[in-house]
Amino acid sequence: MKKIQLSLAATLGAVLLLNGCSNSNNPDINEAPSTPVVPFAPDATDLADTDAHYDYPNALAAAIEPSLLNVKITYIPTLITAPDPTNGYYITDPVSGNNVCQPYDNTLTYPITLTRADVDRDTDKTDVCEPEIKVNFQADGYPVTAAYNAKLRLRGSSTRLASQKSYRVKLRSTSPCSASTVSCWRNDEITLQFNKHPYDLTRVRNKLAFDLMRDIPYLNSLRTQLTHITYNDGTADSDLGLFTHVEKIGKEYLQNRGYDATSNIYKATEFSFNSDEKLILNSDGTPGDHFEDILEIENTSGDHSAIIAMVEAINNDNADFDATFNKYFNRNNYLAWLATNILMGNWDTRTQNFALYQPAGGERFYILPWDYDSALGYEDQPDVLAESHTYDYTLLGAANWWDSQLHRRFLQQPGNVQLLIAAVEDLRSKYLTAANIRSKMDKYKPLVESIITQNPDLTNLPTYSGSASSKAMQWDAEYNRLTGTIETNYQRFIAGLQKPMPFWLSACTSGGKMMLDWGWPVPFDIQGGMLTYTVKVATTPDFLPGTLIYDLATPTAATSTQFGEPIASTYYMQVNAKKSSGKTTHSFDYVDSGTQRYFGVMSFIPTPCL
Questions:
Q1: What's the chain's Rg over C-alpha atoms?
Q2: 35, 141, 281, 531: which has the highest count of C-beta atoms within 10 A?
Q3: Alpha carbon of residue 317 to chain centroid
Q4: Which residues contact 276 (CB under 8 A, 6 or more apart)?
Q5: Beta-carbon contacts of residue 557 (< 8 Å; ≥ 6 apart)
């Protein structure tokens, strides 16, 4: 990765003197530093990641990005000849029309023929069914053969429910690629990941994000290539439209960068750096049964003790955080990752859409980016914005990560807010500029426009039904809007620092009293000021007059209160935190009632405290 030139954040002083808070209890956080803050400084523990890697320099047919890859996938008859207790297949229930996972059993008649329709039915990533078919893979620059040379299956999580699917193609190559009888892709990749990004109107957000990250120091990016796929079912071709091939984070990822191929790589699926009973090892050191429910193991050294120790240390409030952080993380990588996600607006990284790389023989973890199709202003995409309840302000800025022990404790350390602001300013001014984005978008457009604005993609674009514009016109408008999304996210970040950080609500009964609490995470003001709270409990989530059963309207500095236990029913709780400047926030909680979402509201039924 390019070495960063040390720089100053010109606007840091103004940002840190937000709202003129003069009664701060923490001048290290509140006051502008006497000398400018330098966010990044080269360190011996930094990762090396050469830019040349991303242009496939060792390819049979070198591709300088951006380019359009043409792929043809042809079905090879796929027979299941005998029962397999570890797998299954899907049938369609004739009554409900739903897909039903049918485990293999000895009473069935074999062989069973699988087709791409069976693959597309795999809407549940967690069940025992994972249909996979044999295919012939052909692409620009890849040796032509008519034989079975790959397997195809579905990939993704929520995108499995979309009408247009994403696919994994795994070549029959073996590692190392230099000795494989079936050629690897570009000489060094075996697994190809073709993402459709069905919920992204532009279909290029992921590609754009990873291309931008190629230039950001201390943050590894991924190889990507725009791809046009044609599928043949054995009789006729069908156009599947535009995809983005994204490099797999695994063994080849390590080898291609010159890293130790026995290193650990974990992909977060429900991991927040908080303590979790699923994150345990068996007595023999192997991961527990539910370990991969929260952290998928993409490559293993066989030793997972370091990640257990890291999480325990992060969650030990009595341990010195700076010492813990410096032991387990690289500051440059961490700041680059967090600042990039703030500016790109990849809010869906609280518990997923990132990976952790632990070099073999060490204890340090590097955060790797993954999945940016809901970044770069996705929350303001017309169809998403029309829902009006998808994103709350607590999810748009630094507060988004506040309930993570790692991110919260880092930002609570004196001086670290200044570091983050300086990092954001540095990346915004050097790498994530409107001009840089526009330059890349202008290069993509002639490659993708003719594909996206015709079927099958055009019909399936997630456009806003209330617009008078055509689907193609809506695509073009959204495509052009991406240029300004970094600035929008920057302004949201700065504005969010003026508000108190959010928290979670809880309620339970004890001794005939209703006990209300909002003390986790401990409510916090970035500027170090005092907070006060007002509390309401009602029978409806809108807290209209006549529905209140408890109203603590006089501000309190306490983070809990109590009142007489109400009768058994469903109630709604709301707490507003306020600082002396008048800026307020509410909790992370929300309640859906009909078509309305109420942010900062928790529903509960009185139950005894544990």
A1: 26
A2: 531
A3: 27
A4: 294, 311
A5: 530, 531, 532, 533
Q: How far apart are CA 223 and CA 62, in angstroms?
A: 13
Name every residue whose Cβ is closer than 8 Å to that of residue 580 and which is 6 or more positions away in sequence: 21, 23, 529, 530
- What is the three-class DSSP state of 335? helix
For residue 511, the SS3 value is coil
From CA 166, how far away is CA 180, in angstroms rounded?
27
As to burial, measured by CB atoms within 10 angstroms (0-12 exposed, 13-18 middle, 19+ buried), residue 540 is middle
SS3 103: strand
Mean pLDDT of the chain: 89
Write the burial class of residue 51 (CB in 10 Å: 0-12 exposed, 13-18 middle, 19+ buried). exposed
DSSP letters for 115-135:
-HHHHHT---TTSS----EEE
Q: Which CATH number fits domain 504-604: 3.10.450.50, 2.130.10.10, 3.40.50.740, 2.60.40.10?
A: 2.60.40.10
Alpha helices, DSSP H, located in 346-470: 382-387, 405-412, 416-430, 434-452, 457-460
User: In Å, what is the CA distance from 354 to each residue of 117, 175, 279, 513?
Assistant: 31, 25, 17, 43
Number of helices followed by number of strands (H, E) in the chain: 16, 25
Half-sphere exposure of 72 (CA within 13 A, CB side): 15
The enclosing H or E element of 170 equals strand 166-171
Report residue 347 as tokens. Answer: 């809010």
Q: Is 402 within 8 Å of 273 (Cβ atoms)?
A: no
Domain assignments of the chain as residue spans, ordered by start: 504-604
How, if at all, do strands 224-232 and 68-76 pair? parallel
**Would the pLDDT of 88 be above 80?**
no
Give the residue carrying structure tokens 């996705």. 378
- Please calculate the CA angle 199-202-208 and round it to the nearest 5 degrees: 105
Start-to-end Cα distance in the chain? 50
382, 464 Cβ separation under 8 angstroms = yes
Distance from C-alpha of 295 to C-alpha of 273, rounded to nearest angstrom: 11
Cα–Cα dist 381/198, whole Å? 13
CB 529 within 8 A of CB 25: yes
pLDDT, tens digit, 9 for 90 and up, residues 14-44? 444 433 333 333 334 445 455 788 999 999 9
Calculate ∠ Cα 156-67-119, nearest 5°: 25
Distance of CA 175 to the CA centre of its chain: 29
**Cα gap 229→234, rounded to integer Å:** 15
**Which tokens go with 394?**
């607590």
**Residue reference for tokens 């967090």:** 338
pLDDT at 360 over 80: yes
Q: What is the pLDDT of residues 174-211, one digit of tens each?
A: 988 889 999 998 878 999 999 999 999 999 999 999 99
Strand-strand pairing, 264-268 and 354-358: antiparallel
For the segment 205-230, the average pLDDT, to the nearest whole number, is 95
Crossing angle of the two packed helices 471-481 and 434-452, in degrees rounded to 10: 160
Cα 520 to chain centroid, rounded: 23
pLDDT confidence of 48, banded at 50, 70, 90? confident
Q: Distance between CA atoms of 305 and 264, rounded to whole angstroms?
A: 11
* Residue 438 burial (C-beta neighbours within 10 Å; 0-12, 13-18, 19+): middle
Residue-level pLDDT at 388? 65
Is the pTM of the predicted complex or chain greater than 0.85? yes
Q: Which residue has the tokens 């840091």?
A: 12
